[in-house]
Amino acid sequence: MKIVVTSIFVDDQDKALNFYTETLGFVKKHDEPAGEFRWITLVSPDEQNGTELLLEPNNNPVAKEYQEKLFAQDIPATMFGVTDIEKEYKRLVERGVRFTTEPTEMGEVTLAVFDDTCGNYIQIVQQ
């Protein structure tokens, strides 16, 4: 068994698609109509056949509350791995990304947290 798709709730699919592709650098894999919303998945440019990230609309009240409570408590919704966190941090800051936690060593990993502008904090980590 392997993880094929994982999702993140977003408050605006178009804004999220733009941020995750144009700012972060993910690649759009699927963008299909799904009722009043769309099935939008992204992949890493380095692993285009790897795990897909679904930009899930938070229109369900439970999803919206879950997302808002994580955000209010400064809890990242998910974590992305990077090879060089200092380089990635600088690249994203130059693109206007707002970090709530600068690169910080935590044992054997270094992590940083940023606001995805779509209702989530995202953690990047270098192992």
From TrEMBL:
Gene3D superfamilies: 2,3-Dihydroxybiphenyl 1,2-Dioxygenase, domain 1 (3.10.180.10)
Domain VOC: 1-127
InterPro entries: Glyas_Bleomycin-R_OHBP_Dase, Glyas_Fos-R_dOase_dom, VOC_core
Highest taxon listed in the record's lineage: Bacteria
Protein name: VOC domain-containing protein
Pfam family, one: Glyoxalase
Cited PROSITE patterns: VOC
